[in-house]
Amino acid sequence: MEKINENLLLGAKSDEQTARDKGIITTSIIGILANVFLASFKVFVGIFSHSIAVMLDAVNNLSDAASSVITIVGTKLAGKPADKKHPFGYGRIEYLSAMIISIIILYAGITSFSESIKKIISPEVPDYTPVSLVIIAAGVVVKLVLGRFVKARGVRYHSESLVNSGEDAMMDSIISASTLVAAGIFLFTGFSVEAWLGALISLFIVKSGIEMLHDTLSEILGERAAPSLALDIKKTVTSFEDVRGAYDLVLNNYGPDSFNGSIHIEVPDTYTADKIDGLVRAIQLAVYKEHNVVLTAIGVYSFNTIDPESLAIRERISGIAKKYPHVLQMHGFYFNKATKTVRFDLVISFDADDRRTVFQQVIDEVKSAYPDFALQAAIDTDYSEL
Predict the structure, then answer these.
(1) Which residue in 198, 208, 251 sits closest to 382, CA to CA?
(2) Runs of H (alpha helix) within 190-308
């Protein structure tokens, strides 16, 4: 237990994280070797066939190799241990590397479009040979297989950089296939359409780059965690004896599969500080082991176990709250009979036009039902709202 707690504090890598980094780097190295190999052949073919499409295809291969290098560097930097300046580690560097790759793809698409337009204005007659066509066809197969492989690894390792690189490789296979189509049209009709095809495909590459950049920037800005992860964590927390509910889960992302967070638990009002301390530590350990999430803080709500009158009050106030469709939940309820104080939190949906107005309407109705009670109520947010 002591060793695991030390890992929690120091942000040490788990075996799964180490295996993930190794898998990403290995996949990237395979991508570099494959792309450099293809680029070498395509440059040779492009020069001797005077084909702008083949030359652009070779440039795309080199940009893919550069993307793989960026992925390796990003993974290495993201794996640096936490320090005084960055106490939560460097995991978000992976998002920056994915953003750079998106920009490279976007730039490649714009450049390809520009070159294609130049060739439309000042066309050159291509000179295809059987050898060059075979090389291009082999490139189509290699890039398609490589793209599917890299993207699958990206999904497996939750690496946006690999996913982006894989999608780019599959786009390149389409570019290569279009070159074959253009070659076939030219050989049978004598009319060169490769510049037009290059321009059309370049627009698709630009679109793909913009979408990748949008998704990556969304990650950097901070997206909510997957609802399934939030539900699984709450399920783990409420599996402990006497924990009646788990609320207010907040998960902060510090890189792929790297989360720190906080949560509130609801326990009997008879719990001592010593018992709460032991329970909190056990929950932190279980959540880390099962979900690789570090709960840096666990707040506590108490619920009544002695006064039966509190149950009736809770049910009535809960009924009032449920009448409002944007009230998702009431939790943290406790009734202090001695001071006639009721405290609770209301979770208001983001779908409400004015969450504070909804909250005030509920409070006004509760005050009307219990005019002699003092209310300690708070508007709350469910950050894992489905």
Answers:
(1) 251
(2) 194-221, 227-238, 273-291
